[in-house]
Amino acid sequence: MTIMSSALDTRDPEVRLRALFDRGTLRLLQERDGSGVLAARGQVDGTPVIAFASDATRMGGAMGTEGCRHIVDAIDAAVRERVPVIGLWHSGGARLPEGVVALDAVGQVFAAMVRASGRVPQISVVLGPAAGGAAYGPALTDIVIMSGAGRIFVTGPEVVRSVTGEQVDMERLGGPEPHGRRSGVVHVTTKDDESALHTARQLASLLGRQGRISPADVAEAADLGALLPEQASRAYDVKPLVAGLLDEPGVELHAKWAPNVVTTLGRFAGRTVGVIANNPLRLGGCLDAASAEKAARFVRMCDSLGVPLIVLVDVPGYLPGVGQEWDGVVRRGAKLLHAFAEAVVPRVTLVTRKAYGGAYIAMNSRSLGATAVFAWPNAEVAVMGASAAVNILHRKRLAAAPADQREALRARLVDEHLEHVGGLNRALEIGVVDEIVKPADTRRRIAEALAAVPAARGTHGNIPL
């Protein structure tokens, strides 16, 4: 079907779909009508994609029976053709004049999204207010992108004021700041619509055309170890290490929410991969309730879409405290354990500095089924740091030692602890670490490990954890 002429209104769905697809590839799936939705097929960097867009020029993009049917048909077509589906959202929710009939139609959209979950990539781009049913639509998809003008909320500011008395505007209630930093509803925030659509194109290309691992083509970057500080106790930002590992900069998801863990989609040795990394710049790299949940959802998304995982580990443990316990760190931390243990995609772990305690297990350990576990030469794998362990295990002995001999005794006990209880050599001996790799050889060894196992894909959906 050929496209029809579109209005100059930037909210017009055809204008937005043209901006999303490669030039000249857009083909409408139905004639323009008053349904409030327009669906089309086209290409993104040569990758076939199906997309639908709210028509904000008609009743604020409200969703009625016909519009919802167009969305369901688009999603079902994407599943049949095994291609990504992208939704461009700018909608006030269900159409009030249609009453419960519209609500039923919106429910059918939700059901179609759940049917498609884990079968094809689903990407949402929020370009204006998305309220009520139009808020839950994006939330059911794999990745949510929000432009500067985007807003997501179940009920608008007027309803909030009338029911709770809280004074709030649309931006503070459901804009990029609250959803990008506080709630975790939005994976990527951008300054404008153009940037949002550009990000959607990047993600559609990464997930729709994943490629193959080619170890022979791996070119080593500059020494990755140089990206870490010389002092093992110093904090650092792991993002340059993630960028150095990938072929080119990827797309970070949830950059501002739970930033003590970094989750990025990108290409490695020619293939799309997901990278999860502890970030010592935030909370010392500790896992906490929010970051465990964030990482768990990323793992399950990658597993359901057949995306291999690379896990960069530098973690001192779980963040302690009453707040964490009350915030459900046990329940939410268990999500990460479950996600890794359930995953079947190839997944390689690299311990760069340390992996301690329960967080060592959670970050794709051998016990949870890692494909391979590598470590840099100075890495530590233990229940806790040797010095802290000695302080606990030998507290009385240290206290009884003469003051001038105490530090020498502590150093000797630390060496004995590393030799007999833990440390990298012990980890190699029992097989929980496969190999010590030099930083300069890291990319090649990871590529070889990923290429050595068959591709696999989880059979589950991607519930929004």
List the defining traits of the structure above.
465 residues; alpha/beta; eight-stranded mixed beta sheet; 18 helices; disordered N terminus
Descriptive notes:
This protein is an alpha/beta fold and 465 residues long. 39% of the residues lie in helices and 19% in strands. It is built from 18 helices and 16 strands. The chain has helices spanning 13-20, 65-81, 100-116, 133-139, 157-164, 170-174, 176-183, 193-208, 239-245, 289-304, 322-326, 329-342, 357-362, 386-393, 395-400, 406-420, 424-430, 442-451; strands at residues 27-28, 37-44, 47-54, 85-91, 122-131, 143-146, 151-153, 188-189, 251-253, 261-268, 271-278, 309-315, 347-356, 372-375, 380-382, 435-436. The strands form 2 sheets. Strands 1, 2, 3, 4, 5, 6, 7 and 8 form an 8-stranded mixed β-sheet that branches. A hairpin with a 2-residue loop joins strand 10 and strand 11. The longest helix is centred in the first third of the chain and has 17 residues, at 65-81. The radius of gyration is 25 Å and the shape is elongated. The two termini are 39 Å apart. The model is unreliable at 1-7 (pLDDT under 50).
Q: How far is it from the N-terminal to the C-terminal residue, by CA? A: 39 Å
Mean pLDDT: 92
- Radius of gyration (CA) equals 25 Å
| Strand residue content | 15-25%
How many helices does DSSP assign? 18
Structural class: alpha/beta
| Strands, count | 16
Q: Give the helix proportion (percent range).
A: 25-40%
| Largest beta-sheet details | 8 strands, mixed
Can you tell me the overall shape? elongated
Low-confidence spans: 1-7
